[in-house]
């Protein structure tokens, strides 16, 4: 969980600053996705898929709720 101060720092950033930070983090961490045994890599990508599926389901559920409102 992020501290209130860190969250406020992110809120104060411009969209381009947040994008730059995101791209830096992706660049720094991408090599680690393929490190480890084949089983570790498979588990890592399965976890990413599962987290993405859960996030997508929550977003679709929220969108569906808004469509039910007049």
Uncertain spans: none
> What summary fits the major beta sheet?
none
Rg calc: 17 Å
Taken in chain order, the helices and strands follow as HHH
The separation of the N and C termini measures: 36 Å
Total number of domains: 2
Q: What do the pLDDT scores average to?
A: 94
Question: Can you give the helix content as a percent range?
Answer: over 70%
Tell me the overall shape. Answer: flat
Set out the fold topology:
Layout (H helix, E strand, L loop, with lengths): L3 H9 L2 H19 L4 H31 L2
Tell me what the structure shows.
- The chain has two domains: 33 residues; 35 residues.
- It has three helices and no strands.
- The protein is 84% helix and 0% strand.
- It starts with a helix and ends with a helix.
- With 70 residues, it is mainly α.
- The model has no long low-confidence stretch (mean pLDDT 94).
Task: Give a concise summary.
This protein is mostly helical and 70 residues long.
Primary descriptors:
70 residues; 3 helices; flat
């Amino acid at each position: 969980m992020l501290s209130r101060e860190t969250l406020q720092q992110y809120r104060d950033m411009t969209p381009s600053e947040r994008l730059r930070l995101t791209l830096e983090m992706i660049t720094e961490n991408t090599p680690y996705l393929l490190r480890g045994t084949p089983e570790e890599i498979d588990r890592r990508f399965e976890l990413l898929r599962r987290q993405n599926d859960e996030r997508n389901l929550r977003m679709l559920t929220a969108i569906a709720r808004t469509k039910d409102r007049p």
